[in-house]
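Ticket #4471: structure export looks truncated?
Reporter: QA, pipeline team
Priority: medium

Steps to reproduce: submit the single chain below to the structure queue and open the exported record.
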Amino acid sequence: MNNTEFFYKLPKEDTNEDEAKIIEIKFKDGSKIKKNDVIYIFETAKVTIEVESQQEGYIHFFVKEDQVVDVGENVCIITNNKGYKKNTLTIKNKSKIFQLTKKAEDFIKNNKIKLEEYNLSGLIRKSDIEDLINKNEKLKSNKIEKLRKNKNENILILGFGAQALDVIELIETNTSYKISLIADNSENKKHSTKYQIIKDDENLIQNCNKLKINKIVICWGWIYSLKKRYERYKQLKELNFEFPKIISKTAKIYKSAIINDGAIIFDNTVVGSNSVVGEFSIINHQGVLSHDSFLGINSHICPGGVVASNCKIGKNCIIGINASIHYGLDIEDNKIIKNNESFFKN
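Actual output as written to the record:
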């Protein structure tokens, strides 16, 4: 006989409510049930609902009594397989049994999170994944701090335009990195610096190796040459150079936000909860990436630019000075939003 599985999701009984509370579970996991049995009861702010089985079989629950559940989330499964086991992830011969909510699944997919890195069991909600990420980030940070005494922290600044001065001060006042060199090919440099400037040529790698430099911050191409900037980044990354996150101490970064490698976050910026700053991206002075939004790879929010909540900004995009992207919009790759421009939903 073929195995059959019927998932019971929490139904939407009120258009104004996205969750409900499970107040009673009528059967134990693995119990044999009949068609039309009441299997669980949930309540919203207005009503209490009894849910009946639509078939007979063996029931298994993914939730507990008194738990608040999102609409559309799996509450239980009825199967004809008496030996059914809940979701199992096998990692190095160790099985981890868990069930993901829909929001957790979407969050994991959108942020390309590897479940193998986390110890999962039972019902896993989006907030659980966020908490695990934060704990892992803290552990990584602690390990990095312990290694710093023995680890080389020299850094190279690639490009010496006006933006480089801001980045240099950001590094000096907010990080423990030591700026060892600046590489730049412009003939007429408008600014002076205490740091040695060398040519960005075929000897660059050799010079870095001599000074044990393994970290680079690229300070050119933020507006007119984003694609070329990203190509250079990929070339250097293939040579095992690292691109550290440079984050101002005055930036407001919410705990559940994710900042990827190579990102530069300037003074008085905001990165909201559950938002993601893509690899090698920039949020300039007083820029805002609101909650549940995504800033794509190698994109740039210019000073005062605002991305509202639940937006997705593609790669190689520029959000101009004081420009605004309103709620729930997707911006395609390589898009330039002009200064003071506002984007709304139609």
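Status: closed, not a bug. The export was complete when the record was re-opened. Leaving a note from the reviewer for reference: The chain has five helices and 32 strands.
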